[in-house]
Amino acid sequence: MAKVQIPQEENATLGGIRKVMYAPSEDGRFTRHNYGSSVEEFATKVAVQEYEKLESEALRRIADKEGSAVAYFMYKNRMDLPTLASVTGLFQFQIKRHCKYRVFVKLKDKTLQKYADAFNITVAQLKGCNDAPGV
Question: What topology does CATH give the domain 45-131?
Fold first, then answer.
């Protein structure tokens, strides 16, 4: 069986911790190997930059009374619609609506509590974000 090349590069985004990969050895059994990848590091950095850009855009939309704190905290916590939907138990189309200012201000505390639990904040912090952007 051909030997698999396992990357041994540094990955600064993991803080020196190595990931685990299982690869076949010469006798065909899968064995555990530690690895690091600079490609993975690059992809992680690009993703973080994109979330930071989305986060600042969400703050601008809050200041313009177009967006809501739901979008801001979603991006701040590095979540996307499917992730937030699975955590809150809401549908993605509902979350999209709740990201609009005019819909968000009418939400009941029960719904806001689902978001607050997902973001590990209080309902007051969630509501206050729309009043004082720059959280």
Answer: 434 Repressor (Amino-terminal Domain) (1.10.260)
